[in-house]
Specification:
Blueprint (H helix, E strand, L loop, with lengths): L5 E8 L2 E8 L2 E5 L1 E3 L1 E2 L9 H6 L5 E4 H6 L3 H6 L3 H5 L5 E4 L2 H6 L2 E5 L4 E4 L6 E4 L1 H11 L3 E3 L11 H21 L6 E3 L1 E2 L5 H14 L6 E3 L8 H11 L9 E3 L5 H10 L3 E3 L2 H7 L2 E4 L2 E4 L19 H5 L2 H9 L4 H27 L12 H10 L1
Parallel strand pairs: 4-16, 5-6, 6-7, 7-11, 11-12, 13-14, 14-15, 15-16
Antiparallel strand pairs: 1-2, 2-3, 8-9, 9-10, 17-18
Helix pairs in contact: 6-7, 7-8, 8-9, 9-10, 10-14, 11-14, 13-14
Bound molecules: zinc ion (ZN).
Length: 378
């Protein structure tokens, strides 16, 4: 069964790679953007709509599903694929990031993390073993190691202590993880300190030389975008060539571009759907806000170059009206477009890499400065 996991590297241009990540639930052409279904649903969308956006692999969160409805209930339903009726590949996040970012932490010890549920205040202890139990019950194709995810900024001493604990926790995850039809990805930590990233890579590869993939975590926790780019450019090329590399929680179009250039294969982020619910949509020339007065009589699609359901069926004026009238369908239509936009963007980069085209020739939209300008205009 384990042989179902295999990464095929098809082409490389500089550090950028095009490949296929094979999983028990099918292949994932890479680079790939994974839409996020935090509560086992991509907010405002059906799974059929997510599929129509071209998604091949999706992400859900062990932390949220553990708290509600409970991983045992999902297991009773036949596992996550059956529960949400998504038959393609799924990855579950271990809960590490959520415990450290969303929960009220009571105690962090070598054993694990005690925290209060953001839903009802109840107390819980998550250990590497508990995280593995939850993820094995959910039964996604890829489970993530339970890691400590320090905030930004931290001192180098704290970051080092934290990454060493993450390595010890990785060993416990490996010992406890028992599903042969599920890959376990370790997570590289080390905050913004490049020598600590090197240490984390070295220790992770020592402990888990045969993992089916590796993740870069501890980014997107509030550090400046330039630092994220430095970390990724520095870390990704050190990971094994013939394994998929997953950059956790990073997702503006510009971030994706930088990640692909650095040799990352898998991405996830709530950004495209979160900004959509607030009325923002992506275009090749920047992010726009649908409620702008200027779109009142704009009878063109959100993005004339886009082939998504929203762009082929509706106008900016209509979707603006839905937002003004507080109709939820507007949020769905922008979410569909934004997800499709990122997936097309990954597809375009993939085709360019496969064709041997110089990547510099592709449009490098979404420079942070440009984004800021657009935001100021809207
Ligand atoms: Zn569209």
């Amino acid at each position: 069964m384990a042989a179902a996991f295999h990464f095929e590297l098809l082409a490389q241009s500089g550090q950028a790679r095009a490949g296929v990540f094979h999983t028990p639930h099918g292949p994932v052409p890479t680079p790939a953007f994974m839409p996020v279904g935090t509560q086992s649903v991509v907010k405002t969308l059906t799974w059929e709509q997510v599929k129509t956006c071209g998604a091949s692999m999706v992400l859900s969160n062990a932390f949220h599903l553990y708290l509600r409805p409970g991983h045992q209930l999902v297991a009773e339903a036949g596992g996550l694929h059956q529960w949400m009726n998504w038959q393609g590949p799924i990855l579950t996040d271990s809960g590490g990031f959520q415990v450290f970012s969303l929960a009220n932490i009571n105690k962090l010890t070598e054993e694990g993390v005690t925290f209060q549920s953001p839903i009802d205040g109840s107390r819980h202890l998550i250990t590497p073993e508990v995280s593995m139990d939850i993820q094995m019950a959910l039964g996604a194709d890829v489970a993530m190691a339970f890691d400590e995810c320090p905030p930004y900024p931290v001192t180098p001493e704290t970051a080092k202590e934290s990454l060493l604990r993450t390595i010890r926790w990785l060993e416990r995850c490996q010992t406890h993880h028992q599903r042969a039809d599920q890959a376990l990805f370790p997570i590289i930590q080390g905050s913004t300190f490049l020598p600590l990233r090197d240490l984390s890579v070295a220790l992770t590869l020592e402990r888990a030389p045969d993992a089916y993939g590796y993740a870069i975590g501890g980014v997107s926790v509030g550090e400046p975008p330039d630092l994220v780019a430095d970390i990724v450019r520095h870390t990704a090329p050190q990971l094994p060539t013939h394994k998929p590399r997953y950059l956790m929680g990073v997702g503006t179009p510009h971030d994706l571009w930088q990640g692909v250039m650095a040799g990352v294969d898998l991405f996830d982020c709530v950004m495209p759907t979160r900004v959509a619910r607030h009325g923002a949509f992506y275009t090749p020339t920047g992010r726009r806000v649908i409620t702008n007065k200027g779109f009142e009589r704009d009878f063109t699609p959100l993005d004339p170059t886009c082939d998504c359901f929203s762009c082929t069926h509706h106008t900016r004026a209509y979707i603006r009206h839905l937002f003004k009238a507080e109709e939820n369908t507007g949020k769905s239509l922008l979410s569909i477009h934004n997800i499709r936009f990122l997936i097309r963007w990954m597809d375009q980069l993939r085709e360019a890499i496969l064709a041997g085209a110089p990547l510099e020739t592709l449009p490098q939209f979404w420079q942070p400065a440009h984004q800021a300008t657009v935001a100021a205009e809207s």
